[in-house]
Specification:
single chain, 482 residues, alpha/beta, Rossmann fold, 2 domains, eight-stranded mixed sheet, seven-stranded parallel sheet, 15 helices
């Protein structure tokens, strides 16, 4: 986009300098270095404790907030199996996070109650629902060890595999724990029977396995939907989740967790998980504060690519994710960059399962430092080394497969959250290549009440210095807070 665009910000200025950004909340790191999401082996980031209040809404008006288990201060208060406590200790979880203090007593009460939980990434959601799942398993007989008792659904195979990793670490001392992964495969060959105590998978594959009697759902006690707003809002996934739930016992405990819950999805979640307890953050606390947001003016798609090449040296300082709107764009950019001698990887929904696993594993290990992807990796994926996110295309909202002209606010929020857990400092750069993208970025700034600063690409040495300084400062603060 040219510099004579109406209302363009001055060089080095903000997108809308009349909109001020409130002071970012102080970052409060876990004293014990606990890790949520992916563990150490998968390069997960440390659990963060932003300064906020967890609100609790009880479905039972007779519930007693003075009950000792209304909130817990230690995991010992839950009466957990010693082997689970040992698993928690191996993950450096010494005490519950603020969300876990309130969520765990509600999750683990008996008789089981449904729960709808909204909490920022990196605050312990994954560990909370995994802890509940493990505590409800009966592994006393050989038959119980191979009969599914808990089902966790995720929107992508990458997130499903990450959750499996958390269960493996937390449940490593539980004799007889068998975990099954139900995700799409590149072959039609499936096991004759899903022999495991916990199943983690994607809705379509799980639905298919139940239909074909590969998976027996009759003994399931817990159903968890991770990234629930995305699962229930997308037409395909939402329909599949409904069909899966209809195949499960009516007495099953339903647990929904997400970092965001738009109003219309929250209303539907109440029907999917009836009479549920709720833990929530106020909407105005779900912001992008603490993430340094920048944008670059580009006249066209070719200038976007040229800017990406100029930034390549910065992309490899740590690890970086480049978000594009289509699989074709990802493939094209990867091909062009590779031909120019740059080392990049591309991961989209069009790539076969085992190859996708290999790509994300290379990215986690640091073997591949630059990853080009679509929104398949916008949610839930935790890789602590990611220091920079590029919005090559501004995420647009669609309704009935038509572009509404507005941005997809939740996708933007989740995308830039891949630079680090919420409450930490990260760097996100958006490329603006058309008037529509310009307007969408203005809307994003207004929606989140934040400042998005323009980068002057007239001096690339200055651009490099600015971004390196920001990344260095974020790392220094993270190290200081540990």
């Amino acid at each position: 986009m040219s510099s004579d665009t109406p209302d363009a910000a001055p060089v080095g200025g903000s997108l809308a300098d009349r909109v001020s950004k409130p002071d970012a909340p102080a970052e409060v790191a876990s004293e014990d270095g606990a890790r949520d999401g992916a563990g150490d082996k998968l390069g997960g980031s440390e659990l963060q404790e932003p300064d906020y209040t967890v609100e609790v809404k009880l479905s039972d008006l007779q519930a007693d907030p003075n009950n000792p288990l209304f909130s817990i201060q230690t995991f010992d208060n839950l009466g957990l199996d010693e082997r689970i406590l040992k698993g928690l200790s191996s993950m450096n979880f010494r005490k519950p996070s603020k969300v876990q203090e309130r969520a765990l007593p509600l999750l683990m009460s008996n008789p089981p109650k449904n729960l709808v939980g909204q909490s920022q990434s990196g605050t312990g959601k994954t560990a909370a629902f995994v802890l509940n799942v493990l505590s409800r398993l009966d592994l006393t007989t050989e038959q119980s060890q191979i009969t599914p008792q808990a089902l966790i659904l995720a929107p992508t195979r990458e997130l499903a595999r990450q959750i499996v990793g958390v269960i493996q670490v937390m449940g490593q001392f539980l004799d007889g724990l068998v975990i099954g992964t139900a995700v799409p495969t590149e072959t039609s060959i499936r096991p004759a029977r899903m022999d495991c105590s916990v199943v983690v998978g994607t809705p379509g594959t799980v639905q298919d396995m139940i239909k074909k009697r590969i998976m027996n759902p009759t003994q399931l006690k817990v159903l968890v939907l991770d990234e629930a707003d995305n699962m229930l809002d997308q037409q395909g996934l939402g329909d599949q989740c409904i069909r899966v739930k209809a195949m499960l016992p009516r007495t099953i405990q339903v647990v929904l967790f997400s970092a965001t819950f738009p109003t219309h999805v929250h209303t539907y979640a109440g029907k999917f998980a009836p009479s549920a307890n709720e833990i929530t953050l106020k909407h105005d606390e779900l912001t992008v504060e603490g993430i340094k947001q920048l944008y670059m003016d580009c006249n066209n798609e070719e200038e976007k690519y040229a800017s990406l090449i100029q930034l390549y040296g910065l992309l490899t300082v740590g690890s970086s994710i480049i978000f594009v709107k289509t699989r074709a764009s990802a493939s094209q950019i990867e091909s062009r960059m590779t031909a120019q001698g740059h080392t990049v990887a591309s991961l989209t929904g069009g790539i076969e399962g085992s190859q996708r696993d290999s790509i994300i594993d290379r990215f986690r290990s640091g073997e591949a430092k630059v990853l080009i992807t679509t929104n398949v990796l916008a949610r839930g994926i935790d890789v602590s080394t990611v220091s920079l996110v590029i919005n090559y295309d501004i995420p647009a909202a669609f309704e009935n497969n038509r572009n509404t002209g507005e941005p997809d606010y939740q996708t933007y929020l989740h995308r830039i959250g891949r630079t680090g857990r919420f409450g930490r400092i990260g760097v996100a750069i958006s490329f603006v290549g058309s008037r529509q993208e310009w307007e969408m970025l203005r809307m994003i700034q207004t929606h989140f009440q934040c400042t998005i600063d323009r980068i002057d690409t007239g001096d690339w040495d200055e651009v490099e210095e600015l971004i390196k300084k920001t990344i260095k400062n974020s790392r220094a603060q993270a190290k200081f807070n540990q």
